[in-house]
Design brief:
By secondary structure, this protein is mostly helical. Helix content is 39%, strand content 3%. It has 9 helices and 4 strands. The strands form 2 sheets. Strands 1-2 form a two-stranded antiparallel sheet. It has a two-stranded antiparallel ribbon with strand order 3-4. It starts with 15 loop residues before the first helix and ends in a 36-residue tail after the last helix.
């Protein structure tokens, strides 16, 4: 049996921490009991303080420290603003169609009535022309009544109205003529020296016949409004307390055809400086070149 060489076991080296710890324990063991009590109490106080700080520290600070990504409530940047108020556009009112719309003929300036048109609105036009003195009431089958036919008499009355009111003389009732005819600005029939015998000849003739009947003129009606007719109208106006301007306007024409008109031979007739006797106008007057 071979002899086994004896080798002593190597002792393990202790770490520095263990050595320091053992040295600290030996040192603490050598300290008095009162010192150990003070040190232990101080350590306990420090531990308690740390625990309290951890427990009582607000969670918001911890969330802020982690950054905005870990925050439960998103930040609102800037001041919230309401969208701008946009009022709804006011709808444009629907224009009222003109009374002539769809009646007669449509032209560049709107609808208009012309000769031989049949429409209910013609009766309204005739009524207004009669009221203003441009037309006499039509007689149909012995009955005086307005009609719905735009005939020659209606056309001529419209031409006279256009001439007196100084608008386009075409003998048609367009929107402009209709609007003026139905308005308060429409001028009534007026006959005066130089009135066109082509348009106003029938009205002048009727006036001369009445002046002859009342004794203010002699002779035969001519349909021309010259100086003799002007003088006769002045005498009638003076005798009937009207302005003696020689113009046969609405007041003169409204009175001369009534029973209240004072004749030249009446005792109540006012004196006049005009000649006692006048004859109907002589001479030839030019006709109006404008045709409807």
């Amino acid at each position: 049996m071979e002899d086994v060489e004896y080798r002593p076991k190597k002792r393990k080296k202790r770490s520095k921490f263990v050595r320091y710890l053992r040295a600290f324990v030996r040192h603490m063991a050598e300290l008095p009991a009162q010192t150990l009590l003070v040190i232990g109490g101080s350590i306990a106080i420090v531990l308690i303080t740390v625990i309290l700080l951890v427990v009582l520290l607000p969670r918001g600070d911890a969330q802020t420290a982690k950054g905005p990504e870990s925050s439960a409530t998103p930040e609102i940047s800037g001041t919230p603003t309401l969208p701008p108020f946009t009022p709804e556009p006011t709808p444009e009112p629907t224009p009222t169609p003109h009374p002539l719309t769809g009646v007669g003929t449509q032209g560049t300036n709107g609808w208009f009535l012309q000769l031989n048109v049949q429409a209910d609105i013609v009766a309204d036009i005739q009524t207004r022309l009669i009221e203003l003195g441009y037309m006499e009431m039509p007689v149909i089958d012995g009955v005086a009544q307005v009609t719905t036919t735009y005939g020659p008499a209606t056309k001529k009355a419209v031409q006279m109205f256009q001439a007196v009111n100084e608008i386009e003389l075409d003998g048609c009732v367009g929107e402009a003529t209709y609007d003026l005819l139905m308005s308060e600005n429409a001028k009534a029939l007026t006959l005066s020296r130089g009135s066109d015998p082509y348009l106003f000849g029938d009205m002048i003739t009727k006036l001369q016949e009445r002046l002859i009947e009342l004794g203010y003129m002699t002779g035969t009606p001519t349909g021309k409004y010259g100086d003799p007719t002007l003088l006769a109208v002045q005498k009638f106006q003076s005798a009937n307390a009207l302005k003696p301007d020689g113009i046969a306007g609405r007041d003169t024409l409204a009175l001369i055809y009534t029973d209240a008109a004072i004749g030249a031979g009446s005792a109540s007739a006012a004196p006049t400086t005009a000649p006692a006797t006048t004859s109907p106008d002589a001479g030839t007057a030019s006709q109006a070149p404008t045709q409807p």
